[in-house]
Amino acid sequence: MTFDAIDRKLLHLLQADSKQTNKALAYQLNLSVTAVYERIRKLEKSGVIKNYVALIDKTKVQKDFVAFCHVKLVQHSQEYVVRFERDVNELDEVLECYHLSGDYDYLLKVLVKDMKAFRVFMVEKLTKINHIGSTHSMFMINEVKHTTEITV
User: Fold this and answer.
1) Which CATH code for domain 65-139?
2) Which of 23, 44, 90, 126 has the greatest number of CB atoms lying within 10 Å of its CB?
3) What are the tens digits of pLDDT across the range 34-50?
């Protein structure tokens, strides 16, 4: 899909604050409310806009301990990969999971309350998933950049 300058600006505005009214967006884009509505519908129907979400401040909900876990499977069979991916999708503490090339098979971004909660997660949840050969964890010291905005 090709985007013109207005689509790009519209996507930027929606990613900054998706609760803006079409009227407010129209004013910023110098378009009619109907034109903004139609552009948004087009972006939604084409799948460019997948969803609208509320971004939660992790410190306000006492979930600001961030860990990154490398996971290596004991075997790289399709069965093990499918099972691991299904099981990891059931873990609420895992915000993101990526299948990687390199020394480890997966990278998980885990969000919990504190180190004690992370240990409980590792011992009672993650390491109970079958076919995990090894893990390696790192902990966030400081969040330097965190964005959900994709520049188009």
Assistant:
1) 3.30.70.920
2) 126
3) 999 999 999 999 999 99
